[in-house]
Amino acid sequence: MKTIKYIIITALLMQGVCVYTQTETNSLFIRVFSESRKKIAKGKIVFMNDSILCLKRGQKKQNIQVKDIWRIKTKRSEGNSVLASTATGATIGIVLGVATADPSDWWGYTAGEGAIAFGSLGAIGGAAIGGISSAFKNSETYVINGDIDKWRLFKEMIEKVKYK
């Protein structure tokens, strides 16, 4: 019993350390596409001026010329929502399958069988929830086409949102 208390206290302390070390950013996550509809960059906006957009992804910064920007999409792609909810559902299912395993019960199953069955069901349910939630994501697309005037309008809109 004493060991469980130590594990819980350690987990709570580690969670506090992780929360404390995270940096707070209010930058908008965007994806930038070229004229050929290929994604040329993605990340959070660091700065913008009349000719350059600077994005940061992890520790890497990338500068993109406005003339190379054809479309900008906000938020993450729908696949991200599906993948994250699938992983969450599978994890919860595996934990439940292992925790409720009782081979001597009338409808008994081992921990491994429970992990596989409940993990699969959790993954399917998570994918369904992710697919449904991506429909309500409100991702926006801004067409720039390398035009400075459209870029300035986008820049003004972002600055209003950022400094609200």
- Helix residue percentage: 40-55%
The CATH class of the largest domain = Mainly Beta
Quaternary class? single chain
Beta strand %: 15-25%
CATH 2nd-level architecture of the largest domain: Roll
User: Strand order within the widest sheet?
Assistant: 4-3-2-1-5-6
Question: Whole-number average pLDDT?
Answer: 83
Walk me through this protein's architecture.
This protein has 4 helices and 6 strands, in the order αβββββααβα. β3 and β4 form a beta hairpin. It has 2 domains: 76 residues, SH3 type barrels (Roll), CATH 2.30.30.100; 57 residues. The protein has a 6-stranded antiparallel sheet, covered by helices on one side.
Q: What brief labels describe this structure?
A:
21% strand, alpha+beta, six-stranded antiparallel sheet, SH3 type barrels, 2 domains, 164 residues
Blueprint of the fold:
Elements: H1 2-21, E1 29-33, E2 39-48, E3 52-57, E4 60-65, E5 71-74, H2 78-99, H3 111-134, E6 141-143, H4 148-162
Antiparallel strand pairs: 1-2, 1-5, 2-3, 3-4, 5-6
Helix pairs in contact: 2-3
